[in-house]
Amino acid sequence: MTNSLRHALLLALLLIIVGSGIFLTKIVKLQYPLAPDEKATIWDFEIYLEFDGRDDPARLAVYLPAGDVERTFPQEQFFNGPFGLSLVTEPETRNRRAVWTYRYPSNRKVLRYTAKTIGETASTPLPTSFTRNDPPPPAEEPDPVKRQAFIVWSADMRRRSADDASFADLTLSEIFRTGSGNQQSADEISVLMNDRSTTLTRLELARETFHSQGIPARIVNGVYLTEGRRRVDLQHWLEYHINGEDLRFFPNGEPSRFFTIWYGDNQLVEASGIYELDTQLTLKSQQNAAIDIARNTKGPLRAFNKFFSFNDLPLTTQLVYKVLVTIPVGITILVFLRQFIGIKTVGTFMPVLIGIAFRETALLNGLLLFSMLVALGLAIRFYLERLQMLLVPRLAVVLISIIIMMAGITLIMSDSDQSIGLSISLFPMVILAMTIERMSITWEESSPGEAIKQGIGSMIVASLTYLAMSNAQVEYLMYQFPELLFVLMGLCVLMGRYTGLRLSELWRFRQLATS
Amino acid sequence: MFKTISALRRNGVMGINERNVRYVNALNPRRLFYLVDDKFETKRVAAEADIPTPELYGVIRNARDMKKLDELLDHKDGFVLKPAQGSQGKGIIVIDKPLKGGWRLANGRRITIDALKFQINNILSGMYSLGGQPDKALIEYRVKFDDVFSEISFKGVPDIRVIVLRGIPVFSMLRLPTAESDGKANLHRGGVGVGVDVATGKTQMAMQHDTMIDIHPDTANPIGNLQVPFWEDILSMSARSYDVIGLGYIGVDIVLDKDRGPLLLELNARPGISIQIANRIGMRPVLEAAMKKSAEQLTWQERVAYAKTLSKKAVDISKNGGDPAEPAAS
User: Does ipTM come in above 0.95?
Assistant: First the structure.
């Protein structure tokens, strides 16, 4: 392998890795959709508090979802009424609380908090601060009977399990009776639960048992996200961490999407000085363009939305780039067709320029117009040949006659089919004039057959590049993921070092293919 | 298709991509391209190495030079008008002899002084030059081609193309004009390419339009086993051209003149690969063998001697190649 080849391969590899790395980060981490009109569900989450104030100093501390990456809140809103609001974060648990206060509330009062979220799934990773910490020792149980029961119970679990994972599975199945029914420790459990067997108390027992074994675990409070609009109840589940794996246990069956509000066993609302509190949690699902949701994602990868996207540019500039970023796709196709297939074209990048021109006319009209104008232009060019003119003036005459022909076609077409007539207006006449000039030289110097062959080759390449460049999917991908330009560049570098035979050469050298 | 690919690979057939990447891009520094792209420069450099070229009658660089035109064109034996930077024989006019009010072209047609001036203007405006930049028009000696190939050419001037890799003449081919090619020995335009054994200078198989043939399409005479005269001179000219041109992979085009012997016509920095069909040989084994030779330390005589041993090797490849009449399995 020569030095230059190694260098080229390295460069290509680097470009492709960088480009697809950014691309994959956006897809996987920021959940950019791959299709332009993909929808995603976003939920409006609301905490609604209604209560009576009786001129006592009022204080309501309410847990709010922590605003980190996975549960984004593009729009978080507080409806405070006359209340003062302060936000308190507990760094240890990442819990966040809104504290509403008012000195002398009277009558019925309403406080609201709303947020938009895309929720979490079972694969959403847990915060690292949690997994890194060792669990605290189990709380000292004052009741000696319970203490004894806990020791017996946890020792029993430990004896009947092989490792942390089986310990966790066994504990959970014993506590929640999901096993086959032979709970050997049923007595201890009922003692430990104090006969208050709610989901929360069971989860607390599970947490304590996990901690006794040194497994990080915590209780999570949140809601399950469901379709439609409804009041929802708080749900509780357990998060624990074994052997570097984040695990969740949902006592009421695993939801497809859920939404964490806070950790620990505190109540959602802690209130003083108010009466007849009514707390409501509401969810409303709505369909949004997935790309908009992804683009508004917060968190450490936010920079990707800014540096690898055109969305913050002025609208007119955005429109320009929408077209511009598709051109490299056309060029890459052209390179492929030339280096691997061996299609002959008029000029090097002219077919791509013609392909861009087809955007104005659509494919069939474009092909029709183009071949019509080139044919007429060639006829004029051959006539001018007899006048023995110089090159540049001759090109000018060809160009002017093309515009005259275009005007003629527009006038004729405007009666019957307006779309062709109007779309022609931006057809690139300079490209046309150059194509005609080059074709006529090939026509004379090589052969008419060669000129027509190159003309047809150009049309094929132009059509293919047009189809690729105008494809909505391609346009979307290139516009939302401009880092793919690096990938295309890498591909072109690779193709630039391709030394194998072209498809056309298989035919050309077929007589040498004897064995 | 994969059968064809593997057969072509086994026979060492080189494609355009490989030629460009491995040889043209790797061995031909762009700053030296002007030496081959501009035939005026080629003549100048060839003279330094005592390589004979067709005598230059005059150069027309601009409209003012046109005034001297009558004087420059006054040659009873005819002349050739060509763009200095033309490629693939484009824009070349071969004048046979003066006629009243004009000249007779080599192909028998008549051309007026006006048409000729128009052609010169086209050349000056860059119509035939690469990239369309302004060009010079060269008026030079019209080669009186050696009769040796008259049986197998139709009008025009046959020429000999030698592929020279770092001064080693690795492949050669005789190019014959046909009726179809309008008297030009250009393969693109329907000329016939005849493989020539580098070691002996004897013609072998032939091809037209990338298809093998064994008789000339117009004269119907057999093409193979003719001795190219002045063969040692041709090899020597090709090998020596490397010392003054400095490009590592060139096609040297040589014509045989009845009176003056072999003349260097032009050089090509991107010689075509059809020569493989004319020789029925894949180029790759020979080129790769020649690349391993440290040609810079050899004299041109040593390079020619080495080339002849290479050619033996190449012939062996051809014999392994099988029956030429058999169409390829695809």
Answer: no
